[in-house]
Amino acid sequence: MKLTGGQIVAKALKANGVDYVAGMPGEGTWALAESLLTADTDIPFIQVIQEQSAVHLADGYFRACGRSLAVLLPGTLGHSKALGGIACALADASAMLVISGEYSEGSDCRPAAPARITKEHVRVASIDQLPQALRRSFDTMFSGRVGPVSLDIPATVQIASIDVRLAPATLRATIEVQRVDQQVNVVALREGGASQSTEDGSGDVSPLKAQRPLAELRSVLESDAILVVGAGKLQALIREMFPVYESRSLCAASACMSGWAVPAAIGAKLAMPARQVVCAVGDGDFLQSMQEMAVCVMHSIPVVFVVFNNSGYVSLSDVQTPLLEQHRAGEFNLPDGKPYAPDFAGIARNFGLEAWRVEHASQLNPTFIKALNSKGPSLVEVITARGSRVN
């Protein structure tokens, strides 16, 4: 049987239990993308809007189920946009295979992903090396402390063909890669659960304090629901007061990386489609990756996004001394000093999501229920007060 390099990659991914490939096609990876999109490949390709989001999506997928995805990035430029996400995956022991391809061949080609931010970087020089390189990549990914592995497959190797008979066993890793049941960023259940006190969020007041919507959200979620948490003080607050009843139900990047939560939540829902998946994220964090709502709409992925809108990066502005009555770094303000915030609910509707804006406590419960019962992706924008002294 004559197979191209791209077809060998597709067969190896299937043999190792990879259910999705996330990424962006581009120069250097067109042949791989075409191989994945052929009718007999049976591996859905999830095209994201920005390269780093593909890495975060794969990260969230692994945290939710313990299985790996493949990420397809175009050449050196695509990798450069995703380096922070790959480093975050390495720090948190999240497994993924990051595949890229240089468009041009030459002795001056450099590895697209520095080895120090992956467990291993492998460059395939010829098609006959490809089956062994793929098998070795999956072995490396799951041996010892799991982590990302990068594989550079030049365009010439992707389009080359070879007469080869490849049974799945010849491509499959020697260790079990179907599921890794290590605990990744999971808060252990305490007796009786965490406190859900709403004493400083009681009453139908506006703007809300963050504790109240979190408590209301927990009250309507199923016990095995997955909460993907964004960066900043929201993460610390959830760890303090949000009960977790099942393993892999709380996903948070230890690097507190802004822009991680939205694509990671999409990955978690792909991994566990039968469970509720909610992304709790601040407005500044959400602005860095909200374009990935388009992925939810295009692929009918019903994630619920809860955006805590306090007009800025509160965790950044809080490091300044409270004695200074000046414009604080991290706040989003107009020239006259009034708080600025986009209409996130309106933006979400324009993307094709169902969306609601919540300003009062009495709106929380019925709105969360509507969002969770939505047949597609949805968003709840919750207007919250600024500053840790009120949040």
Automatic annotation (TrEMBL):
GO terms for cellular component: acetolactate synthase complex. GO terms for molecular function: acetolactate synthase activity; flavin adenine dinucleotide binding; thiamine pyrophosphate binding. Keywords: Thiamine pyrophosphate. SUPFAM superfamilies: Thiamin diphosphate-binding fold (THDP-binding) (SSF52518). GO terms for biological process: isoleucine biosynthetic process; L-valine biosynthetic process. CDD domains: TPP_enzymes, TPP_PYR_POX_like. Coiled coil: none annotated. Residues 4-106 form the Thiamine pyrophosphate enzyme N-terminal TPP-binding domain. Gene3D superfamilies: 3.40.50.970. Residues 231-382 form the Thiamine pyrophosphate enzyme TPP-binding domain. It comes from the Bacteria. The keyword ATP-binding does not apply. Belongs to the TPP enzyme family. This is Thiamine pyrophosphate-binding protein. It comes from Pseudomonas fluorescens.
